[in-house]
Amino acid sequence: MKIVVLKDKKAQGQAVAALFAADVLTNQHPVLGFATGSSPLPTYAALIDLYKANVLDFSNVTTFNLDEYVGIPAAHEQSYYTFMRENLFTKVNVDLSRCHLPNANAADPALECRQYEQAITKAGGIDIQLLGIGLNGHIGFNEPSDVFPDQTNVVALTDSTIEANTRFFASRQEVPRYAMTMGIGTILRAKKIVLVISGKDKAEITKAALQGPIVPQVPASILQTHHNVVVVLDEGAASLL
Ligand code: F6R
């Protein structure tokens, strides 16, 4: 695991965008794995800048997002589909038909989960996967548990995650209780993983994930077993290492 500590979120975004840019520039058919939430925003801003500066061309890119809420339509202002459209997809020349998020409201969720896995495989696997981490150590929406789920699946969100997500909704009542998420196995099958963590409030979980035992109660700790992980921290997140 390579750990990089940078001054602030802007520097983190530029570093992570540089890692993604390398894949876009070097692969014939880049397959990028994306995340939502606050952590990836500086990365998306930096990728948009590289596109506007004519450095990056996204026309050949395929994308897969980690997760999507169950129970709100894709057009909802807080869906991850809307998030990705607003923060990246409509700002670069990516072909929207090659941008994938799990269809969390599919009539047959188990079938949708299997098809999501198949679509990733058919695309050749994910070249580089972006991750944030929850305060409870989740990656994607793989919450602390007694097992590491392998494949894309539907999960019940924990109270801590619902609490953290309340900031995006009018009230706690409106926060979705379930999500469809890539499994831990899906994430680990990515050829390269970039975990970005900012802020002192994540210092404890950062330490547990990077230096603690590998246990499903801290889902991100499994990343210690992957052969190609870059962790990009700011000084706050790194403060207990
Ligand atoms: C988002 C995702 C989550 C977030 C995590 C951190 O697609 O899968 O695991 O990465 O909850 O969220 P932020 O970055 O908002 O602190």
What does this structure look like?
With 241 residues, the protein is of the alpha/beta class. It is built from 7 helices and 10 strands. α1 packs across α2 (41-52). The radius of gyration is 17 Å and the shape is globular. The relative contact order is 0.18. The model has no long low-confidence stretch (mean pLDDT 97). Fructose -6-phosphate (F6R) binds at residues 35-39, 66-67, 132-134, 138-141.
Task: Summarize this structure as a short list of keywords or feature phrases.
single chain; 241 residues; alpha/beta; seven-stranded parallel beta sheet; 7 helices; 18% strand; globular; binds fructose -6-phosphate
**Proportion of beta-strand residues:** 15-25%
Number of helices: 7
Structural class of the helix and strand makeup? alpha/beta
Q: What is the distance, rounded to the nearest whole angstrom, between the alpha carbons of the first and last residues?
A: 14 Å
SSE pattern:
EHEHEEHEHEEHEHEHE
Task: Please summarize the sheet with the most strands.
Answer: 7 strands, parallel
Count of β-strands: 10
Spatial extent as radius of gyration: 17 Å
- Sheet with the most strands: spatial strand order: 1-10-9-6-2-3-5
Question: What is the residue-mean pLDDT, rounded to a whole number?
Answer: 97
Bound molecules: fructose -6-phosphate
Gross morphology: globular
Oligomer: single chain
State the share of residues found in helices, binned by percent: 25-40%
The low-confidence parts are none
